[in-house]
Amino acid sequence: MPTGFRLGARYAEFRQLTHDVESWSLEQVQEYQLKQLRQTLIQAGNYCPFYQHRFAKAGFRPELLKNSEDLSECPLLTKQDLLEHRDEMISSAVPKKQRLYITTGGSTGVPVGFYLQKGVSRPKEQAFLEAQWKRGGYFDGARLAVIRGHVTSDKSGGDIASYDATRDWLMLSSYHLTEERLPEYLAAIERFRPDLLHAYPSAALQLAEFLERAGQSWRLPLRGLLAGSERLTLPQKRLLERVFKCRVYRWYGHSERVVLAGEGRKSELFYFWPTYGFVEFGTPNEDGLCEVIGTSFHNLAMPLIRYRTGDYVRLADPRTDGELEFPWPAASAVDGREQEFLVDAAGGRRNRKDVARETSLDCEQAVTAA
C-alpha cells in the first residue's frame, strides 16, 4: 500500500521536516518557529471566538508578534478552559469534515475533549514518532510486537494477539495480561520474532518481572524496546534493559499533540522538537521542576496556545548532564504520566488512558443514539 495513502498525503512533508531540522542553525529554528507562531495566533485571533475574546481582554495583538518573547503577553490556557470553552476554540475556517474529535486519557481525573485536523495531525505525529524512534533502533519496515491497548477479544479467555498485515506488526492485547496468560504472550512474541517491542511501560514491566520471578531469560534478540505514554523511571528502565538485553527508548508527548520530546541517540535526555510545537517552561517549583507549556503548530482546526499541560520536567543542565546533542530545549527527567492501570475482575491490567477513551466513546455513542 502506498505510504501517502496509508499515512496521509502530508506524511512525506513532515518526515522531511524531521530530517532537515537536525542540521538547522539556531537562527533557522527561530525563523521557522516565529512563522508557525504567527500562523497559529492569527488563525486563532481571526476564526476562534474564544481566542478573539481572550486576546482582546489581554490587549494582545497576534499580528504584532515580532519574536517568541512577545508570546509572554498572551494569556495561558488551562485544561479547565478546554472543558468549558472547547466549542468556542474551534476555527470556523476549517470545515467540520476536516476535524477529528479526540479525548485525553484523563490522567488528571477528567478526560478532556478537543479536535485535531484530519490529514495533518496524524501524518505529522507518525513522522515525528518514527524519526525519534530511529534513535532507539527503529527502521522503515521493522517488524513490531505491540502491547498498547489493542483489543483482540472482550472475553477473558479470548485470543491475545492479531496480525496487522499492512504494517507487519503483531498486535497483542493489553487486557489479558494476567499471571496465568503471560507465558502465552512470551510464546507469541518468540514465534513472531519482531525487530522491536512497542509497549506501555507497565506492560513491559509485567513481562520482565514475570521472567525474573520464573528464573527465565529473554532469548530473542531485539534492536530496541519503545516505551512511551507512561512515565518510566531510570531504575525501571535499567530493569527492562537488563531483562530484554536492548536499549529501552523513552519519549514524552500527550494526546493534545502540542509538544513532543524524545531521548537522543546517545543520551537519555528528552529533546523537544522545535518544529513540532513551541515549548515554554513555568517557574521551577520547590523540587526544581517546571511545568510544560506549549503552543501547537499545524493544527488549525483547534489551535492550543500557551497550553498548561500539567506535566513537569527537570530541565537539562550541561554542567551535570553533559553536552547537548541538539541545540533544542531538553529535560533530564519527566514527572508525569504515572503507570496508572485498572485491574479487572479477571485479573487483567488495563491502562487508564484506554479505559478513559473507551468510556468517552461509549458516552458519545449513547448521546448520538439518543
Descriptive notes:
It is a single chain. By secondary structure, this protein is of the alpha+beta class. Helices cover 35% and strands 21% of the residues. It is built from 11 helices and 16 strands. The chain has helices at 3-7, 11-21, 26-47, 49-58, 79-89, 121-133, 182-192, 201-214, 234-244, 318-321, 352-369; strands spanning 99-103, 113-117, 144-150, 161-164, 169-173, 196-199, 224-227, 248-252, 261-263, 270-272, 277-281, 290-296, 307-315, 330-335, 341-343, 349-351. It has a 12-stranded mixed beta sheet with strand order 4-5-3-6-7-8-9-10-14-13-12-11, with helices on both faces. A two-stranded antiparallel sheet has the order 1-2. The protein is globular, with a radius of gyration of 21 Å.
Which helices and strands appear, and what pairs or packs with what?
Blueprint: H1 3-7, H2 11-21, H3 26-47, H4 49-58, H5 79-89, E1 99-103, E2 113-117, H6 121-133, E3 144-150, E4 161-164, E5 169-173, H7 182-192, E6 196-199, H8 201-214, E7 224-227, H9 234-244, E8 248-252, E9 261-263, E10 270-272, E11 277-281, E12 290-296, E13 307-315, H10 318-321, E14 330-335, E15 341-343, E16 349-351, H11 352-369
Parallel strand pairs: 3-5, 3-6, 6-7, 7-8
Antiparallel strand pairs: 1-2, 4-5, 8-9, 9-10, 10-14, 11-12, 12-13, 13-14, 15-16
Helix pairs in contact: 2-6, 3-4, 8-9
